Amino acid sequence: MRLWSDNLKLGKGSAFVKRDLRLLPLTEAEFEADFWFDAESSTKRREVWTGMVIERESGAVLAMRNVEWPPPTVNDLANFLGHAMLRPLTAGDRQRPGAIHLRDRPQWQELLPHLGQLGIKVVLEDALPWFDQAVVEFLQHRRHASPKVLDEEQIRQDLRRPFPLRKPTSTKRFFRPCASSLAFDTSPTRKRGTSRISSLARRASVRSHSLRRACRKPFGASAVSSF
User: Fold this and answer.
1) pTM assigned to the model
2) How many C-beta atoms surround the C-beta of residue 190 within 10 A?
3) Domain ranges, residue 193
4) Can you say how many angstroms the Cα of residue 55 is from the centroid of all Cα atoms in its chain?
5) CA geometry: angle 163, 68, 57, nearest 5 deg
6) pLDDT digits (tens, 9 = 90+) for 151-198
7) Residue 2 in domain
8) Cis peptide bond upstream of 71, omega within 30
9) 3-state SS string over the chain?
10) Which residue has the higher pLDDT, 143 or 81?
C-alpha cells in the first residue's frame, strides 16, 4: 500500500515516469490542471477532493479522479499529469504539451524542475479559465434537478483558495504491532529471578507466528477507532 507523502516521490508506483514521458512527441498543446474540494460529497470523516486535467484548445478532460489521501499533494499532481500525457481519457494522442498552466501553489514547486527537464513550460497563475469553467459546469450539471442556484463567482473564489495543511498520520492507524515491538519486563524479581523472563519469552514465541501475519494486515475501521 502506497501511503501519502508531502515530498515528491517518482519512480515505482508513480504514473509520472520521465523515461516514458520523454518518448512522447512534444506538441503545442496547453494543459490546465488543479484540484477542487467537493463539499457536497464530503462527510465529517472523509473529505472528497477531485483532480482534473483540461486540454485548452478543445476543452477535453484528459484526466479526472478523486484524491486517495486528501488534501492533494505534489504526488497527486504528478500522477494526474502522467495519466493525462500517457493515458488520456479522451483516447486521443499521447503527447507532452508545450505548456502546463497551474495555479500558483507552494505544493507544486518540487515538480516544476522535472517538467522543465521534459521540455514543458510551466505557467503559474491565480485563475485557470478552462479548468474553472469545467468545474462550474460539472457542479451545475450535478445540481440540474435541484432548485438551489449555484453562485459561480463563489465557486471560482473557492477554487483559488490555498489547500489546507494535512494532519500528520501515525503508522499505528494502518498496521498492527509486530512481534519485535513487544516490550518484555526484564527486571529481576526476588523469588523467581530470571525465570520470569524465560516465561515471558516462551509465551512470545508461541504467539510470534500469528503476530507476524497480523503485522502485515491493515486495520479495519473498528480497529482504527480503538487508538
Assistant:
1) 0.69
2) 5
3) 171-224
4) 22
5) 70
6) 888 999 999 999 988 764 443 443 444 443 334 343 444 444 444 445
7) no
8) yes
9) CCCCCCCCCCCCCCCCCHHHHCCCCECCCEEEEEEEECCCCCCCCCCCEEEEEEECCCCCEEEEEECCCCCCCHHHHHHHHHHHHHCCCCCCCCCECCEEEEECCHHHCCCHHHHHHCCCEEEEECCCHHHHHHHHHHHHHHCCCCCCCCCHHHHHHHHCCCCCCCCCCCHHHCECCCHHHCCCCCCCCCCCCCHHHHHHHHHHHHHHHHHHHHCCCECCHHHHCCC
10) 81
Are 107 and 42 within one domain? yes
Domain of 61: which CATH number?
3.30.420
Q: Which residue has the higher pLDDT, 108 or 226?
A: 108
176 and 97 inside one domain:
no
Give how many domains the chain has, as a whole number. 2
